[in-house]
Design a protein that fits this description.
mainly alpha; 4 helices; flat
Length: about 80
């Protein structure tokens, strides 16, 4: 992963910033999307502190999600 901290003025945050503007937390049964979680200012601060790239983390999480959703994927069970 990229070890350079990402600034909030970084263009990589433009997409998640737009998700931040459309949040609707009125429905208690609604879970935030990955984009909304990555747009959260506290999450961005943690990413900056830990020198994580939000785009790379999102790519990793989506790839893991696809692997978990694929019934053909080989699973390793924890003993």
């Amino acid at each position: 992963m990229n070890l350079q901290p990402a600034s909030q003025s970084d263009p990589r945050y433009d997409r998640v910033r737009s998700a931040e503007l459309t949040r609707d937390w009125q429905d208690p049964m609604r879970e935030p999307t990955l984009e909304e979680i990555l747009a959260d200012p506290i999450v961005r601060l943690v990413f900056d502190r830990d020198r994580l790239d939000a785009v790379e983390v999102e790519r990793f999480l989506k790839a893991a999600s696809r692997r978990l959703a694929d019934p053909r994927a080989e699973r390793v069970d924890a003993a």
